[in-house]
Design goal:
about 90 residues, 3 helices, about 75% helix
Length: about 90
């Protein structure tokens, strides 16, 4: 799952929304792996809760950046981010 998410992140770099969705897919696959490891070893699952809270904060920050970019540039194309273009 992690490799599929990474491949989508690398190949779909045209729109910011596609990149954010693939990053969330990568985070969810890491979360699933973390849960499976903690259950198999018999540890507490508090670390997975902290990881989930951090990933939600990362997702909301990404959506906020995308909204700001759409409002200032008019689209979510990555190519429109370059400040050197006039």
């Amino acid at each position: 799952m992690f490799l599929i998410g990474t491949w989508i992140y690398i190949s779909k770099r045209k729109h910011l929304m596609n990149m954010l969705i693939s990053l969330e897919y990568i985070v969810l696959s890491i979360f699933l792996l973390l849960i499976l490891i903690t259950f198999s070893v018999g540890l507490e699952t508090y670390l997975s809760l902290i990881f989930l809270v951090a990933s939600v904060c990362e997702g909301s920050l990404g959506v906020g950046m995308m909204v700001g970019m759409v409002r200032s540039h008019g689209s979510d194309y990555i190519n429109s981010l370059s400040s050197l273009k006039c």
